[in-house]
Design goal:
272 residues; alpha/beta; Ubiquitin-like (UB roll); Rossmann fold; three-stranded mixed β-sheet; 12 strands; rod-shaped
Length: 272
């Protein structure tokens, strides 16, 4: 073997190492370094949107929510209960509740309490009413009845002020005293009835009827069956005489007492 060939053989490994190193260097120079991913940023996204556009959508959202809320309040909050308080002499709570059945179909906020008040006061024998809403779902009604104290000419009823009342057919007024007289004398008849009743109550006597005829003469009928003629004059004195007679006469035997005399009375007895 020659010296040159030995040098060539000895140099091959070095050349191979050089080539491999060159390849590694070349491969290193041609590679791209991978970087970690950048996280998504809301702040960055909003930075790309104009301020006026964000304000527009913000206001629009508030308007939409407000409209939705108003619709819920208007249609989604019904009256669930009706509470009624009153004297309950003629009306009963359940009867008034039936008259106001439509209230439960109404929205609590939009219900007009003035309309309810007007309807209640328009009912027979209702003098006044107070109506209010009670949170969260109740309508409260407090009413006062216009109490009739007597019938008038077999047509209407009278309250203590002599005012005529319209009587519904559902009420029984048969037990009330009956007053009769000229239409223009209604207040006078009522006042005289109250005077008679006040004095007679001292001896436990009750009036059944009071009549004033066209010439101003008075006649009364008592619960014990007595028919009394008082005339037109000296009514107070004659009434006092009647009270004395009620104390001393056997009431079950008297039919008519005529007090149209100066100091006495004519008595008609019941036939045996």
């Amino acid at each position: 073997m020659t010296i040159s060939s030995m040098k060539d053989q000895a140099g091959k490994p070095k050349a191979d190492k050089v080539r491999r190193s060159a390849k590694r260097v070349a491969s290193g120079r041609g590679a791209t370094k991978l970087e970690k991913g950048v996280p998504f940023s809301i702040k960055g996204l909003f930075a790309l949107v104009p301020l006026w556009l964000m304000q527009f959508f913000f206001v629009l959202g508030i308007l939409v929510l407000s409209c939705w809320g108003l619709q819920q309040v208007r249609w989604g909050w019904p009256v669930e209960q009706v509470e009624i308080e009153g004297e309950f002499r003629y009306w009963q709570a359940q009867d008034l509740a039936k008259q106001l059945f439509w209230v439960k179909e109404q929205n609590f906020f939009s219900l007009d309490v003035r309309k309810v008040k007007q309807e209640v006061e328009g009912l027979a024998l209702i003098k006044s009413a107070q109506v209010k809403k009670v949170w969260p779902d109740t309508l409260f009604v407090k009413f006062k009845e216009d109490i009739p104290v007597a019938g008038w000419n077999q047509q209407t009823l009278l309250n203590p002020n002599g005012e005529e009342l319209i009587l519904s057919g559902r009420f029984d007024a048969s037990g009330l005293p009956k007053l009769f007289g000229p239409e223009k004398k209604i207040e006078q008849v009522m006042r005289q009835f109250q005077r008679f009743q006040s004095r007679l109550s001292a001896v436990d006597a009750s009036l059944v009827s009071v009549t004033m005829n066209s010439v101003g003469s008075w006649q009364i009928e008592l619960e014990n069956g007595w028919a009394i003629h008082l005339g037109r004059q000296q009514l107070e004195q004659r009434l006092e005489r009647l009270i004395e007679l009620l104390k001393i006469l056997p009431q079950e035997k008297v039919a008519v007492v005529d007090l149209r005399y100066g100091k006495g009375a004519a008595i008609k007895w019941l036939s045996v």
